[in-house]
Amino acid sequence: MGITATMRADSSNDAGEDRTRDDVAALIGRARRGSGDSLGRLLQMYRNYLMVLAGTQIERRLQPRMSPSDVVQETMLRAHANFGQFRGASEPELIGWLRQILVNNLAKFVEQHVLAARRDVRREVSIERLGRALEQSTIQLAALLPAGNRSPSAAAQQREEAVLLADRLAMLAPDYREVLILRNLQGLPFEKIAEQMERSVSATRMLWLRAIEKLRGLYAGEQSHEE
After folding, report:
1. Which band of pLDDT confidence, cut at 50, 70 and 90, is reported for residue 175?
2. Taking the domains of the chain in order of start, what are their residue ranges?
C-alpha cells in the first residue's frame, strides 16, 4: 500500500488552521503530566507529515516490502513509549524529535529489508544520509506553499509550515497527492512519473497542473474564511 492511500484527511481537523503553538505547547504539557489522551492527540497531529517524509525516502519498488505506513506506525509507537525522554516544550522541538525517531526507524527497516552485509557500517551511513534527505524533503515540502501564503522564514518555521502542508496534501485526491510528491518532493522527471502512474507524459503534466491548482485552492479558501 502506497503513501497516498494511507494519509488521513480527517487528521487535518486536529492539525489544521486553528492549531497554534500555544495549543501544541499545552498538549505537550498535559502529555508530560501523564494524559494519555493528550499524547495520542499530539502525536496524531504529525502522522501525515511523517507519512510524506517516509514516502519520499522509500523507493516505489521497495514499498511492497517496506511500507511508509509501517515505518510511521513504528515511529508513533516508539514516540508514545519513549515520550518521557522528550525534553522539549515547543512544536519545533517536538517535530525535530519525531523526525529523529523516523530516521532511526527508516535505517532499521532498510537494514531488515534491503541490506544483508556490513550492517554496522551501512547503518551509520544510512542514518546520516537519511537525516540529510529528510531535511531536504522538509524544505521542499514547505516550498510547495503558494508564494502569497509564505514569507521568508527560518528552518524551524519552514518545518511547521511543512506539517500544515502535509495535512493539506491529505485532503487532495490520491492521484493529486502522488503526482505532487513524485514531482515536487522526489524530483522525478515527468517521463518517470508517467511510467509509475501508468499515464501518458502529457496526461501526467496536466494532472500535476491540476494538483497544483487544487492545492492553491485550499489555501485560497482558507484565506477567504479568515477575511
Report:
1. very high
2. 3-171
CA distance 99 to 76: 11
HSE toward the beta carbon, residue 12, CA cutoff 13 A: 17
Of the listed ranges 15-19, 50-54, 154-158, the least confidently predicted one is: 15-19
- Look-up: residue for cell 556490513? 118
Side-chain half-sphere exposure of 50, counting CA atoms within 13 A: 31
**What DSSP state is assigned to residue 88?**
-
The terminus-to-terminus CA distance of the chain in angstroms comes to: 40
Contact 86, 94 (CB under 8 A): yes
Question: How is residue 66 written as a grid cell?
Answer: 517496506
> What's the CA gap between 159 and 165, in Å, rounded?
10
Burial 2-12 (b: 16+ CB within 10 A, else e): bbbebbeeebb
Predicted local distance difference test score (pLDDT) of residue 217: 86
Please, are residues 195 and 39 in contact by the beta-carbon 8 Å criterion?
A: no
pLDDT at residue 164 is higher than 90? no
Question: Over the range 18-38, which residues count as b (16 or more CB within 10 Å of their CB) and which as e?
Answer: ebeeeebeebbebbeeeeeeb
Distances (CA, A) of 42 to 24, 176, 221: 7, 27, 26
